[in-house]
Amino acid sequence: MTAQLIDGNALSKQLRGEVATRAAALTAQGLKPGLAVVLVGDNPASQVYVRNKVKACEDAGLHSVLEKYPATMTEAELLARVEALNNDPSIHGILVQLPLPAHIDDHKVIEAISPLKDVDGFHVASAGALVVGQPGFKACTPYGCMKMLESIGLGNLKGKHAVVIGRSNIVGKPMALMLLQANATVTVCHSGTSDLAYHTRQADVVVAAVGKRNVLTADMVKPGAVVIDVGMNRDDEGKLCGDVDFSGVKEVAGWITPVPGGVGPMTITMLLVNTMESAERALQ
Ligand code: GUN
To answer: CATH assignment of 140-264, given 3.40.50.720, 1.10.10.10, 3.90.1150.10, 3.30.70.260?
Structure first.
């Protein structure tokens, strides 16, 4: 059996088209949705990420501001910038790119962002809203994974067993909560799990979010299962690869996301969706 691909590029194109339509409608009413992206320091990967985020905004007709600061910026200066953006009515979403230089406390900066503009979904208020099932901004990567499941008719996971591998605040934990919200029975596995394959073999849906190659191999997957690969790693030849042994697992799974072209583009897409939603709320 060969799995069907869940194409993150195609789904992103569709969803970004929908954002563009909503952005045009809101702009016609005199409110252009705006995202501020703040980058401190010169981390090369972060520079690529923020460039992609700003370009995606422009392509969808959103206003975007990229604020770049040297690594010598102090925590107090960054907090002051966040506060100014909180009070800027042309900005509906604020994203401070992580990681920040070591002398700045990530947590303190994220908590300084208004929860009304926390389009990354990283603020404790956003995380808490997810826990209790109240509306708030959802973390973009797991939100994108949920959209991928929805796109194959699995918006409701009643009766399904989902296994999440990884327990990060950014992906694993919010992913588990979103799956739970969609009625799945959820198991979260992590570095302290003694027999990972035992759990994954029972799963109808596996989400791999560890950041390590070949965490999930064909022998660990139930035939027909849906496999979502959040990983972004490099193989021995320097080629981009995920956490899943794609060539093996695609012979067993029913559906699988590729890397690249799977979850990756969905993260930025959901950032646009969140920013759009924030702007629409501002008009209400
Ligand atoms: N660094 C890597 N991914 C992300 C992300 O999604 N948001 C922010 N703010 N920083 C990141």
So the answer is: 3.40.50.720
Contact 234, 214 (CB under 8 A): no
Q: What is the pLDDT of residue 283?
A: 85
Q: How far is the CA of 107 from the centre of ligand 1 (A)?
A: 13
Q: How many CB atoms lie under 10 A from the CB of residue 200?
A: 24
Task: Say what the pTM is.
Answer: 0.97
Q: Where are the domains of the chain?
A: 30-115, 140-264
Is residue 120 flagged as an active site residue? yes
For the stretch 132-165, pLDDT in tens is 999 899 999 999 999 999 999 999 999 999 999 9
Q: Is the CB of 95 under 6 A from ligand 1?
A: yes
The verdict on the CB of residue 97 being under 6 Å from ligand 1 is yes
Give ipTM to 2 decimals: 0.96
> What's the pLDDT score for residue 284?
79
Mutate which of 50, 53, 98, 137 for ligand 1 pocket (most atoms within 8 A of beta carbon): 98
User: H helices of the chain, where?
Assistant: 8-28, 44-59, 75-86, 106-112, 124-131, 140-151, 172-181, 196-200, 246-249, 263-283
Of residues 118, 120, 204, 243, which has the active-site annotation? 120
Going from the Cα of 230 to the center of ligand 1, the distance in angstroms, rounded, reads 13
Annotation marks residue 53 as catalytic: yes
